[in-house]
Amino acid sequence: MAGHQPCLPGWCVRITPAAADAATVTQDASVTEKGQDFVKLSAVELRRISLPLVTPFRTSFGTETTKDALLVRALTPDGEGWGECVAMAEPLYSSEYADTAQDVVRRFLLPRLFAHGDVTAGAVAQLLAPIKGHPMAKAAVEMAVLDAELRHAGQSLATYFGATRDRVPSGVSVGIMGSIPELLDTVDGYLSAGYVRVKLKIEPGWDVEPVRAVRERFGDGLLLQVDANTAYTLGDSRQLAKLDPFDLLLIEQPLPEDDMRGHAELARRITTPICLDESVTSARAAADAIALGACQVINIKPGRVGGYLEARRIAALAAANGLPVWCGGMLETGIGRGANAALAACPEFTLPGDVSASDRFYARDITPPFVLDDGHIAVPTGPGLGVDVLPGVIDEVTTSLETIRP
Ligand code: NPG
Predict the structure, then answer these.
(1) Within a 10 A sphere around the Cβ of 265, how many other Cβ atoms?
(2) Which one of the listed residues 67, 138, 199, 201 is annotated catalytic?
(3) Do strands 43-59 and 297-300 pair parallel, antiparallel, or not at all (unpaired)?
């Protein structure tokens, strides 16, 4: 391991019974730039790409057929760093979407970094904190700076995070289908490919029967979980309790994002463990959720929480409080997929994540594809994100490109 160590105080915070004092979580995360490599931003490219999905992906909030992603490329005097913004084309998963992310990066985030001068990734979140919201936009900027910083230092993201594995078990997220036979065929295909865990997207009218069918067909040994993406209310708790007999690993985000109390009440009414996704927007929100008993598991998505450094803190916080975590996915290209694999390789990530092979979504990616090997995805080892963008491919899928200078 290189001498360049992560500078993320406050990773291991145990919530005391009074810990609704979640402030301790973020206060401890005060930034110190000592020992870090500073990044000088000569310019930043904002690039939009459009990638077709291999099949439509239907969730309770909509159907995706194309990935419209914003990529951030930080240019430094002697190198570069890439970031991927996970905001979707429309504000259906959360309030952010790709156009607003690009706008806020251009108009508000980059000017703050440029005005500050040389930066480290560890300082980015604090510098951008006065701008309210926009965690996915902020995460992409921080990621680009972090990649540039680590490439310069010759250190991989996995090492920086303190990862302990060189490969991660790969779970697959299965969209809502038109029929049960179609679902069973699809799951069968993924299991034959080697995926070690299956997550079924659910919504009212597509919940108990698909779960029953998959359990009956593939047996009790299958690691199975469901994801509602906020599609239910507490009034649906009787229906959700019907999932209890199927021995699911968890049910993800059944209730609306801001219904923390509702999740805590639901946890008393069903036996399937509750995992929060949309509700956990920061380490502070994670501390609240844990203290309230609103979840037993956390899905960590770096974009949703404002960046990989906050994601890393949430993992440590959860582990210190006995909660398992796993790494979510948002249809990332190879850039974000590689970074997710590095995060998922950290010791706190004890459940298989949504870090699937590139071909789960894309016939052709903008980086060399991540492939399934014995149900696992290899963690990149090169400096920074450890993935290289394929120049021929990225130019072909680019729909716009702008360069912002200090
Ligand atoms: O493997 O990248 C993946 C997709 C995993 O189901 C997945 N993501 O709600 O977690 C989710 C969902 C999602 C996809 C959310 C796209 C937002 C956008």
Answers:
(1) 16
(2) 201
(3) unpaired
Look at residue 44 and give its three-state secondary structure.
strand
Q: Is 229 in the pocket of ligand 1 (CB under 6 A)?
A: yes
Alpha helices in 219-369 (DSSP H): 237-241, 260-269, 283-292, 308-320, 334-344
What are the angstrom distances between the C-alpha of 162 and each of 147, 156, 275, 313?
Answer: 16, 10, 24, 12
**Which domains are delineated in the chain?**
43-154+390-404 (3.30.390.10), 159-378 (3.20.20.120)
For the CA atoms of 84, 87, 89, 93, the dihedral, rounded to the nearest 10 degrees, stands at 150
- Above 80 in pLDDT, residue 10? no
Distance, CA 330 to ligand 1 centroid (Å)? Answer: 4
Distances (CA, A) of 308 to 160, 200, 205, 241: 11, 26, 35, 34
**φ and ψ at 232, to 5 degrees?**
-115, 170
Query: How many residues would you count in the chain?
Result: 406
Q: Is 298 in contact with 323 (CB distance < 8 Å)? A: yes
Taking only the tens place, the pLDDT of each residue in 342-393 is: 999 999 999 999 999 999 999 999 999 999 999 999 999 999 999 999 999 9
C-beta separation of 56 from 65 below 8 A = yes
Token duo for residue 372: 């399934």
Q: Is the pTM of this model over 0.85?
A: yes
Q: What is the mean pLDDT of residues 186-193?
A: 98
| Ligand 1 pocket: which of 330, 356, 361 to mutate (most atoms within 8 A of CB) | 330
Cα separation, 109 vs 129, in Å, equals 10
Q: Exposure of 4 by Cβ count < 10 A (0-12 exposed, 13-18 middle, 19+ buried)? A: middle
pLDDT digits (tens, 9 = 90+) for 73-110: 999 999 999 999 999 999 999 999 999 999 999 999 99
Q: What CA–CA distances, in Å, run from 157 to 102, 115, 201, 324, 345?
A: 25, 27, 30, 22, 10
> Which atom of ligand 1 sits closest to the CA of residue 227?
9
Q: Is 259 helix (H, G, I), strand (E, B) or coil?
A: coil
